[in-house]
Amino acid sequence: MEHFEQLNQCLQAGNLAELRQMLAEMNEVDIADFLQELDKEHTLLVFRLLPKDLSADVFSYMEADRQQLIVEGISDKEVQRVIDDLYMDDVVDFLEEVPANVVKRVLRTVDADTRQTILEYLKYPKDSAASLMTPEFAELHEDMTVKDALEHIRQTATEKETLDVIYVIDRTHHLSGFTTLYRLITTEGDAKVSACTDRGVLSVGTMDDKEQVAKTFARYDLSAMPVVDHENRLVGLITADDIMDVIQEENTEDMEIMAAITPSEKPYLKTGVFELAKHRVLWLLILMVSATVTGRIIGYYNGLLQSAVVLASFIPMLMDTGGNCGSQASVMVIRGLALGEVGMGDILRVLWKELRVGLLVGGILSLVNFGRILLFEHVGVMVAVTVSLSLYVTVIVAKCIGCSLPILARRCGFDPAVMASPFITTMVDAISLVMFFGIASNLLHLAA
Amino acid sequence: MEHFEQLNQCLQAGNLAELRQMLAEMNEVDIADFLQELDKEHTLLVFRLLPKDLSADVFSYMEADRQQLIVEGISDKEVQRVIDDLYMDDVVDFLEEVPANVVKRVLRTVDADTRQTILEYLKYPKDSAASLMTPEFAELHEDMTVKDALEHIRQTATEKETLDVIYVIDRTHHLSGFTTLYRLITTEGDAKVSACTDRGVLSVGTMDDKEQVAKTFARYDLSAMPVVDHENRLVGLITADDIMDVIQEENTEDMEIMAAITPSEKPYLKTGVFELAKHRVLWLLILMVSATVTGRIIGYYNGLLQSAVVLASFIPMLMDTGGNCGSQASVMVIRGLALGEVGMGDILRVLWKELRVGLLVGGILSLVNFGRILLFEHVGVMVAVTVSLSLYVTVIVAKCIGCSLPILARRCGFDPAVMASPFITTMVDAISLVMFFGIASNLLHLAA
Questions:
Q1: What per-residue confidence (pLDDT) applies to B24?
Q2: B261 contacts A241? CB cut-off 8 A
Q3: What is the pLDDT of residue A161?
Q4: What is the pLDDT of residues A67-102, one digit of tens each?
Q5: Do B348 and B385 belong together in one domain?
Q6: B153–A182 C-beta distance less than 8 A
Q7: Which of A202, A255, A353 lies at the smallest CB-CB distance from B273?
Q8: How far lies A205's CA from each of A90, A92, A129, A200, A263, in Å?
């Protein structure tokens, strides 16, 4: 950010009035980024310079370690103001990351009502719909008149609340539908709220999985979604910006699993070396030991290799191409499953598709390979036939394994993303070598 | 969907009144899914049963081939009504997918103003911010009074418009900020709109790249974003639901590139076998030919292999583990770059991190491997040392290559996602074998 240099100059020169002026014109996300790069003392100094109505917003975009530093450095009164100005989901996100003494400090400073709400929210599991919701939303009783409803909003709503969608509840506090501010201001004042209420409202339960919530959100193009408890009483609201974060987290998680990494929510540069190593070594060990099976196969055919050692030089090409073909199919299917484009019942349709793709792609690759060997390698025609035929079969098998394992994994209740490149490659390696040596011993009349 | 069976029963029984009743209570996305599964005649029949205010919504969620079928089957008047009720971005998405005769038909039926707008929108490139925007938004002049502004909205706004954010323009039609309906109804009627206008409004240009727009959207947690032309005049609005689609498309694209697939926007099951093959075969060919380098290396060391053919059985384990280690590092960095968590200037920081992770992970893997070989394989200690040492070096090199190539690719203006598993694996294979044979010829005193 070119801004940051100017800000830093002001800070170094002690030109705080100008700094304050510049900060007031910046976006809260950018200010949070700037604070993130300062040392402890300057972080506190700059945070205190922020206009009152900005400081909570900036706070919500900072990382937990910086948030803790700020809470530890400001007065009780300031803590109280910041917490009051935060959305409840941001308060809870923060409290979940910091040590117990900071949590205690925060709970001590806020008023009894807020404390009660915070404690309630802290009880929800991390992956639940409730962990994404805020209690800052507008609700109207369906038998209010529109005029009263508008007056109610005018008097009670705060800047914090989402008013894109206003939920309507019945006398028993159950969610009965939604309306919008636009509808209210374009409806006759004497009409009941129920007259401009849309009953087709999608809601989620507090304990629903947040990934499922994100899917529903995306499928129905929503901008907000109400959360209800087990008795269909409205308890919170989830907004689109939180859902975007869930979608990105989920995609990161999928990509990490697909690369044989135990997923973590921390950004890469913030993760320590030991933690990174820990998240990677387990799968590497499993895959390394699995790969020895492939080694055993080569070991078993040592006699054959000894009498035709030239075959060894085709092993990497066979293994790599097989692995790549399998990965392509598995990634397409894993992604299709994640987006809901492919279902568990589609396994035969998918297999049939991939079988034909394999026949086509395998044909092209084998032909090119056959030509290349004849032209550039000093080996006999039969070796070229052996390698190309093995390649053909490998490609087809790889496509079929690659496309079906993710669906089977989902059926067995596992994450399909596990069945990506590393796992598929290890499997296809073994199979391709067995076929390669099998075809070689038959076509070249060699004994294992 | 369990619903669909009931709907189908009504349809088969000709019980159209009940069917209409059921449809009226369903969500438009689900109805679109249902229509998608019917044959041509029934699609038209059911579409015509839909309540008027639902049919355009349902239409917008259907695939282009079905949309075409409907437009070809309904009257000019019906076409006009559907198009009028659609958001402009949905109209344009549809027209971009269908043959010219359908486009002509649509343009002929709509009124002159709409035609003008459609033609303008069709000119924007597919990846531009403008391709996501709709002209259905509310704008206010900053020197209107709040009372007049509310009256203006009441009279001119339609159900279609987004009123979460209302953009404010100055006398020269330039975007000067935004306000909200909430602010308007809680401000004194005599005050000017400019008094409740927030000037810190982020906007994008019509020709900006849509991926960049999605990043800004996610970074600043926006729910809507104004689009301005090159003279900063407000021309359209982008909403969060369209951005979610862009984010998912972009993630799919990244995953496909990472699996050596030429990306496409079509869902997997809708893509034909030839198209799938076409998107996969190019990269496979490139990688296959690259893998022959690795084969050449083995060929070069044939003499060495002949005198110690047992070494061949460790090749798959070495290659796979090296590939997996490299992929892990590259995926973490590719994702970090995509999310903006890793910058191009971070290359040394990333290398230093991965070097240490490599030392750690490589150490663990080599030790386990050393123990496994001694315990389970009937080979000498020096072979175990050779293999484990090669593994150690391979892991470290793989981590360093895997993490730095994506950043270098970005620096050179390429998509970092290209530097994922398939490409890294092919490179690491060659390097690991050179080191393996180098170490073997030194430690085991074998001649190449």
A1: 86
A2: no
A3: 66
A4: 999 999 898 888 999 998 888 888 988 998 888 888
A5: yes
A6: yes
A7: A353
A8: 20, 19, 7, 16, 26
